[in-house]
């Protein structure tokens, strides 16, 4: 019987069978950041253990840093202590660190791919749930907790139980103005926030195959938002051309051998999936979340849902609670609601392609007077490239704040916070209560929709669709 | 010595999709130790904006202040991978979380912290919630005994509900094995794997990264 891509990678990394339900998997690469690693290093020291393979880990500063400057205390003294601890631990255990002033610093899931570290067929982990991003390259990548961070540092392995396989097939071509963010929000809306629990998801279909790598990363990034362990896309020529020549990609003499191996990384025709979900790309419209979970999503042109239209009393209650928190009236149109903040950034949508999409929508417009709008590039490299292309000038001229790289308002650990009761259109990945600040109201959307909201000053009504995006 | 993994009073939190941002908000993730998270558990629900306790939140009600079993809803612990979430729950005093499903990463983090994520059917969860609500004022009537070997929850009224748990997870909770030490027993196999990988796919073996 054939194997899925997930099963192939899992099998290739099995070091040992520990018991009936658990295998010991080898981890090819490990990313760490300042928030989920300090306790892991403390555990190593307490047990007198060393890091098994320091060069198989890369550290970056991203979650807790200021995006207004490159000072280690830019986001306050508490942040400084955490960043200092990361530097000390990396020095002590000989782990490479892209610190706040490094020319390659950035959000952990942006720098891995752009450096060419992320490659097809790898196993990749990080103490961050959006590690699924790297699955866009056909790598098995997933988030782990701090105890597991310590385990990987010490042994370069992780005990794992085999997950089930889900196929998400997006058939046909996307309409103009519909982006990868709209696709993944539509998928989550269909599958639900727990529908992927216990699964590794493989995305396929014409719409997925026609996406560039940055768009595929957006898709895989939000796999965790439907509860799945990881998301995968089989590597193809798009993947190979993205990787070729990057600093950490296979050298010229190994390239052809690597590529030949990578071409075998696809699900067999007779592979069995435990669950299959099919979407018609042509029916997907620009999406925006209305509630406090990524599954509470609708087309931008739809009306706010009515709790009474949901099946169960539990659902009716949770929808009513979400609408109350979000300050939305059932049946109302989104253009009725003014926007206070717009955030373009995060490991979901802060790459160069995302910023190009966003800049194309600006088209000489200006951020509405009552809106505060931020653009936070995903890495120092993205920032340099965006500045060289003139994208930064477009944003600044339109009244957007142009920031330094970091996680920023996605989780609001630094000083980029949405005030209580304020409404934010965000290109990030989570709209939970309080995620962007206590009592903050978050609407997840694509960069194009976010820019449109910043300029109109409202949760835009039917946007005009042009070849270049939404206006 | 008791045959039970844990016996304690239950507290209801009948909310679906409780995410890790709610369990432990991000402003409490800035430390460098594993301690001090209990007071921040469910911070935005437990405390008002002025810092005073919200008397309406279940954990602030006096009859539940000794609770050690949290009976939650569906998809508990969704969202981020922060292990601070089970640290906060455990440091607050919880030993067991009962739910009809758990987010994968949160579930694993619980096991690694000896916090039992007991997964029951949706019908069983409804019955347990009902039983706790009916006896809200009696700590004794809200007692739940956890038989880990047989994977059963025994309520004070005698009702018994089974819960799901992988064999290896049960063993990890029952035994005081060193999580990392277990893998270190396979050191030779790891060495062999790395040797074969270096020959078979050398581009996978990371070289020194000069930064």
From TrEMBL, chain A:
Keywords: 4Fe-4S, Amino-acid biosynthesis, Branched-chain amino acid biosynthesis, Iron, Iron-sulfur, Leucine biosynthesis, Lyase, Metal-binding. Pathway: Amino-acid biosynthesis; L-leucine biosynthesis; L-leucine from 3-methyl-2-oxobutanoate: step 2/4. [4Fe-4S] cluster binds at residues 347, 407, 410. One of its GO terms (molecular function) is 3-isopropylmalate dehydratase activity. Residues 7-457 form the Aconitase/3-isopropylmalate dehydratase large subunit alpha/beta/alpha domain. One of its GO terms (biological process) is L-leucine biosynthetic process. Binds 1 [4Fe-4S] cluster per subunit. Catalyzes the isomerization between 2-isopropylmalate and 3-isopropylmalate, via the formation of 2-isopropylmaleate. Heterodimer of LeuC and LeuD. Belongs to the aconitase/IPM isomerase family. LeuC type 1 subfamily. This is 3-isopropylmalate dehydratase large subunit. The gene is leuC.
From TrEMBL, chain B:
Its EC number is 4.2.1.33. It comes from the Bacteria. GO terms for biological process: L-leucine biosynthetic process. Gene3D superfamilies: Aconitase, domain 4 (3.20.19.10). One of its GO terms (cellular component) is 3-isopropylmalate dehydratase complex. Catalyzes the isomerization between 2-isopropylmalate and 3-isopropylmalate, via the formation of 2-isopropylmaleate. This is 3-isopropylmalate dehydratase small subunit.
């Amino acid at each position: 019987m054939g194997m899925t891509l997930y099963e192939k990678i899992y099998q290739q990394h099995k070091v040992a069978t520990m018991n009936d339900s658990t295998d010991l998997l080898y981890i090819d690469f490990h990313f760490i950041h300042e928030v989920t690693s300090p306790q892991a290093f403390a555990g190593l020291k307490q047990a007198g253990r060393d890091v098994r393979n320091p060069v198989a880990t890369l550290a970056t500063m991203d979650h807790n840093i200021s995006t207004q400057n490159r000072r280690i205390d830019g986001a306050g003294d508490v942040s400084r202590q955490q960043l200092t601890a990361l530097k000390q631990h990396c020095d002590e255990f000989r782990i490479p660190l892209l610190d706040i002033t490094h020319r390659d610093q950035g959000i952990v899931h942006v720098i891995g791919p752009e450096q060419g570290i992320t490659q097809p067929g790898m196993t990749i982990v990080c103490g961050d749930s959006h590690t699924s991003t790297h699955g866009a390259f056909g790598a098995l990548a997933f988030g782990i907790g701090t105890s597991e961070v310590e385990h990987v540092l010490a042994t370069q392995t992780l005990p794992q139980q085999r997950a089930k396989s889900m196929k998400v097939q997006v058939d046909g071509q996307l309409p103009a103005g519909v982006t990868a963010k709209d696709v993944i929000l539509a998928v989550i809306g269909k599958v639900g926030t727990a529908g992927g629990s216990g699964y590794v998801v493989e995305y396929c279909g014409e719409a997925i195959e026609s996406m560039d790598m940055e768009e595929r990363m957006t898709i895989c990034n939000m796999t965790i938002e439907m509860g799945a362990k990881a998301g995968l896309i089989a590597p193809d020529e798009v993947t190979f051309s993205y990787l070729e020549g990057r600093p950490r990609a296979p050298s010229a003499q190994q390239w052809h051998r690597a590529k030949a191996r990578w071409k075998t990384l696809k699900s067999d025709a007779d592979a069995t999936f435990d669950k299959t979900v099919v979407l018609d790309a042509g029916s997907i419209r620009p999406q925006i979340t209305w509630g406090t979970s990524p599954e509470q999503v609708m087309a931008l042109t739809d009306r706010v849902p009515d709790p009474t239209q949901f099946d169960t009393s539990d659902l009716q209650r949770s929808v009513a609670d979400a609408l109350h928190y979000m300050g939305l009236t059932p049946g109302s149109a989104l253009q009725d609601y003014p926007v206070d903040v717009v955030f373009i950034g995060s490991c979901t949508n802060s790459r160069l392609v995302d910023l190009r999409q966003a800049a194309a929508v600006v088209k000489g417009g200006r951020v509405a007077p009552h809106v505060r709008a931020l653009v936070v590039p995903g890495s120092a490299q993205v920032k340099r490239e965006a500045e060289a292309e003139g994208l930064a000038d477009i944003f600044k001229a339109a009244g957007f704040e142009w920031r330094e790289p970091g996680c920023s308002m996605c989780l609001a650990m630094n000083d980029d916070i949405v005030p209580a009761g304020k409404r934010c259109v965000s290109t990030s990945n989570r709209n939970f209560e309080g995620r962007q600040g206590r009592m903050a109201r978050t609407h997840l959307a694509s960069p194009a929709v976010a820019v449109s909201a910043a300029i109109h000053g409202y949760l835009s009504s039917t946007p005009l669709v042009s070849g270049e995006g939404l206006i | 010595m008791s045959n039970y993994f844990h016996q304690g009073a239950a507290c209801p939190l009948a909310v679906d999709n409780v995410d890790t941002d709610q369990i432990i908000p991000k402003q409490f993730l800035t430390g460098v130790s594993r301690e001090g998270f209990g007071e921040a558990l469910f911070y935005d629900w437990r405390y008002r904006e002025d810092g005073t306790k919200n008397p309406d939140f279940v954990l602030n009600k006096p009859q539940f202040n000794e609770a050690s079993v949290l009976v939650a809803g569906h998809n508990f612990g969704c969202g981020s991978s922060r292990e601070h979430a089970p640290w906060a729950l455990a440091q607050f005093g919880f030993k067991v979380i009962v739910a009809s499903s758990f987010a994968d990463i949160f579930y694993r983090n619980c096991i690694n912290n000896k916090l039992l994520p007991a997964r029951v059917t949706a019908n069983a969860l409804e019955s347990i919630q009902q039983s706790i609500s009916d006896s809200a004022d009696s700590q004794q009537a809200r007692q739940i005994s956890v038989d880990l070997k047989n994977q059963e929850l025994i309520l004070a009224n005698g009702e018994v509900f089974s819960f799901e748990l992988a064999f290896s997870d049960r063993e990890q909770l029952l035994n005081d094995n060193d999580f990392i030490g277990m893998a270190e027993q396979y050191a030779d196999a790891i060495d062999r794997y790395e040797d074969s990988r270096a020959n078979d796919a050398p581009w996978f073996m990371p070289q020194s990264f000069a930064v």
